[in-house]
Write a structure and sequence with these properties.
about 140 residues; 3-stranded mixed sheet; alpha/beta; Double Stranded RNA Binding Domain
Length: about 140
């Protein structure tokens, strides 16, 4: 059974709770009916490691490359795969930032809830180049 600390105890012992979160394990606590999870960035990066970006790669008639992201409805076209990948990575990061700014709206939208781990993965990566390097492309057709 999950042990939940009381929010009052967390507040009284904030430094101790943060130290335990960073050095020992994530912490769970409650305040009335609300339940919280506290972790550090390293743990969240590990938690999100299983979420990967994948895209369908299509060669267009003009020789350009289109990449369609599978996890989020984003599509970018570039002169070659590197260009398309760079544009797609920038779009992912921009989408993640916009999503987070208006999280109360997007995070509750039924057709966008599944984007949450990919949004946070992009925010934690925080770098379009890193995101682009992580996109796995597979050949496909529209």
């Amino acid at each position: 059974m999950l042990q939940l600390m009381n929010a009052t105890d967390v507040r009284k012992n904030w430094s101790t709770v943060v130290d335990a979160t960073v050095r020992v394990k994530p912490q769970f606590f409650k305040r009335t009916r609300d339940h919280f999870f506290l972790s550090d960035f390293n743990f969240m990066e590990e938690l999100l490691a299983g979420y990967t970006y994948s895209a369908v790669r299509m060669e267009e008639e003009d020789g350009s490359i289109t990449l369609a992201l599978n996890e989020i409805d984003l599509v970018e076209n570039g002169k070659d795969e590197d260009d398309a990948r760079s544009k797609l990575a920038s779009s992912i990061l921009e989408y993640a930032e916009d999503y987070y700014v208006d999280f109360s709206y997007w995070g509750s939208a039924p057709n966008r809830k599944s984007h949450i781990p990919y949004v946070f993965k992009a925010l934690f990566m925080g770098d379009a180049q890193k995101i682009g390097d992580s996109i796995q492309c597979q050949a496909g057709k529209i």
